Amino acid sequence: MNQWSQIATQFKQNIKLFDRIDESELCKESSFEINYQMRNIKYKKERPIEPDQPDPDECCGSGCQRCVLEVYYEKLEQYEKDLMEWLAEQDENEDDGKNEQS
């Protein structure tokens, strides 16, 4: 049996094992903890990173169609929107965590 056949066989056996798991057999506390952790992972996003401001000498001043300053301000505007959304999500997650602990 070649290596790929062995991997496929092992994969099929693992799937059969997962099919046999009955959630009702899991401890309620463990199930709650797993769900809580999965929800936190699902909602956790990294804080947006502010774009680097171009150096003053990067703009040639000739009115280019896509000036580096225009690109920067577009990215900055998107960053600010993303940051506000991220902060709102952080507040919601904190509120959810406090409510679940009560």
In short:
Helices cover 67% and strands 0% of the residues. It has 102 residues and is mostly helical. The termini are far apart.
Tell me what the structure shows.
This is Oxidoreductase-like domain-containing protein. Residues 69-96 form a coiled coil. Keywords: Coiled coil. Residues 48-85 form the Oxidoreductase-like domain. There is one protein chain. The protein has 3 helices and no strands. The chain has 102 residues and is mainly α.
Uncertain ranges: none
Report how far apart the termini are: 56 Å
User: What's the helix count?
Assistant: 3
Largest sheet composition:
none
What are the secondary-structure elements, in order, as H or E?
HHH
Q: How many beta-strand segments? A: 0
What's the shape? flat
Mean of all residue-level pLDDT scores: 75
Q: Bin the strand percentage.
A: under 5%
What percent of residues adopt helix (DSSP H or I)? 55-70%
Task: Please identify the structural class as seen in this structure.
Answer: mainly alpha
Please state the CA-atom Rg, rounded to the nearest Å: 25 Å
Protein name: Oxidoreductase-like domain-containing protein
Pfam family, one: Oxidored-like
Keywords: Coiled coil
Organism: Paramecium pentaurelia
Characteristic key phrases:
coiled coil, OXLD1, 102 residues, flat, mainly alpha, Oxidoreductase-like_N
